[in-house]
Specification:
This protein is an all-alpha fold and 243 residues long. The chain has a single domain, classed as Orthogonal Bundle (TorD-like). 69% of the residues lie in helices and 0% in strands. It contains twelve helices and no strands.
Length: 243
């Protein structure tokens, strides 16, 4: 019995992949929230890109080749290179006329009925409200801003991780469904639109890394797992406890 209890405390294999995605969402939310010069300059380019590569590969995305050039570009930058991230952020996302919008309403073309009736920001706000979330105090950005949606995706992914590790597959699938629906109806078009424009308009290596990660979290193969494959993994996990 004691051995079975110890085995039940293992980290669920599915949760490892989802946890990597949750971490990527959080990292992206940090960068797209306009971090301070001090926060940016404290980052080691080598450690940053290695950590991001590890997370993306763990989430089952195939972006290995792109990292070779990105890492070379980041390491060839002036050692103050990270500080130019803020200037690039300002150029792309703040200075009028804004070159790249971070609002979902600018990118989402296939609207839900509520989004068509009351706007994308309102539709997204109702999804947050349904699970008891709201924008952080003092936040002036609309609910469909990229950072808010990244925070939501991170929250849902972390909740799924906790459910898997707690042995509650039913709740894990419910959290996954919330993430899948939000990804499909709201987040994917926004993230891919911003990612593609960063690739076209920016030469800043750190900004391009952020664009790469945005594409990676949408393209992560784990989001494409069909129910039968998920059930197979769950059955294999449960079978590991048979004495």
């Amino acid at each position: 019995m004691g051995e079975q209890m110890n085995m039940r405390e293992q980290v669920h294999p599915i949760s490892l992949k989802v946890s990597s995605l949750a971490s990527l969402f959080s990292i992206l939310a940090f960068f797209f929230a306009y971090p301070s010069k001090e926060q940016i300059e404290s980052l080691s380019p080598e450690q940053l890109i290695d950590e991001c590569k590890k997370l993306i590969l763990a989430s089952n995305s195939s972006f290995q080749g792109t990292f070779t050039k990105l890492k070379k570009d980041m390491l060839q930058n002036d050692r103050r290179g990270n500080s130019f991230f803020r200037a690039e952020y300002t150029r792309l996302f703040i200075t009028p006329p804004t070159q790249i919008s971070l609002k979902g309403s600018s990118w989402v073309k296939t609207r839900t009925q509520l989004s068509r009736a009351k706007g994308e920001a309102y539709a997204v706000s109702q999804i947050y409200r349904d699970i008891g979330l709201r924008n952080k105090a003092g936040t002036k950005d609309p609910y469909d801003h990229l950072v808010s949606e990244l925070d939501y995706m991170s929250y849902v992914a972390n909740a799924e991780v906790m459910a898997w590790n707690g042995g509650d597959a039913g709740s894990a699938y419910e959290w996954r469904k919330l993430g899948d629906v939000f990804m499909r109806q709201h987040f994917a078009e926004l993230a891919l639109g911003v990612s593609s424009q960063i690739e076209c308009l920016s030469n800043n290596a750190l900004m391009r890394l952020c664009g790469l990660m945005l594409g990676a979290v949408v393209a992560a193969e784990f989001y494409e797992l069909g129910p039968s494959e998920r059930e197979k993994e769950e059955l294999e996990w449960n079978a590991s406890f048979v004495m």
